[in-house]
Write a structure and sequence with these properties.
The complex is a heterodimer of chains A (113) and B (112). By secondary structure, chain A is mostly beta strands. Chain A has strands at 5-7, 10-13, 19-24, 31-38, 42-50, 53-57, 64-68, 74-78, 87-94, 103-104, 108-112. Chain B is 0% helix and 55% strand. In chain B, the strands form two sheets. In chain B, strands 2, 4, 5, 9, 10 and 11 form a six-stranded mixed beta sheet that branches. In chain B, strands 1-3-8-7-6 form a five-stranded antiparallel beta sheet, with no helix packed on it. In chain B, a hairpin with a 5-residue loop joins β4 and β5. The chains are: A mainly beta (113), B mainly beta (112).
């Protein structure tokens, strides 16, 4: 079974631009979660989607948004990029029911200059 | 703010020794999970322990959970150089299965 795939692997953007990151979950997984990892704040939950609906949301500004498609693939968008948005963005998928562990992709490394 | 706090922040041991990492959390949980992360890559799930369980084993891993003290520990026995990684505990609240709250992690270095 293929793992969680995130594209692109690396991204360099300029302040004020916007960016879209993509995540393809493991086949059969209906829940996709997004996390931001930085040296200062560690791993922080952004949001979770289940069957195309946002089920949980973290404490991030409205510039961070996401969506999930009918095939469970997910995208997250960050608008008006700030230097502090530089981070490793991790996507994780799970069946979404019961105590299912998360399966993570290798992340997208976003650098904002 | 982070739910879990891990101790120690960094740990350096020799191959063959045991490594113990501790995690404390603040509020009631549904389950607690441990993950490993190799540098710059995604997290790999190691073990999940439910709130009504006290101890679980998986290969060289042993996890304990003390809900009265709101703490958990991860023991890696007979460590290997390949165990070098960052280890994170993550807590899950009821009805929020996809939302994990991570600790800051323990950076483990196993020297051959």
């Amino acid at each position: 079974k293929a793992g969680v795939t995130q594209t692109p692997r690396y991204l360099i953007k300029t302040r004020g631009q916007q960016v879209t990151l993509s995540c393809s979950p493991i086949s059969g997984h209906r829940s996709v979660s997004w996390y931001q990892q930085t040296p200062g704040q560690g791993l922080q939950f952004l949001f979770e989607y289940f069957s195309e609906t946002q089920r949980n949301k973290g404490n991030f500004p409205g510039r961070f948004s996401g969506r999930q498609f009918s095939n469970s693939r997910s995208e997250m968008n960050v608008s008006t990029l700030e230097l502090g948005d530089s981070a490793l963005y991790l996507c994780a998928s799970t069946r979404g029911q019961g105590d299912s562990p998360l399966h993570f992709g290798n992340g997208t490394r976003l650098t904002v200059t | 703010s982070q739910q879990g706090e891990e101790d120690p922040q960094a740990l350096s041991i020799q191959e063959g020794e045991n490594a113990t990492m501790n995690c404390s959390y603040k509020t009631s949980i549904n389950n607690l999970q441990w993950y490993r992360q190799n540098s710059g890559r995604g997290l790999v799930h190691l073990i999940l322990i439910r709130s009504n369980e006290r101890e679980k084993h998986s290969g060289r891993l042993r996890v304990t959970l003390d809900t009265s003290k709101k703490s958990s520990s991860l023991l890696i026995t007979a460590s290997r150089a390949a165990d070098t990684a960052s280890y994170f505990c993550a807590t899950v609240f009821y009805n929020q299965g996809g939302k994990l709250i991570f600790g800051q992690g323990t950076e483990l270095s196993v020297k051959p």
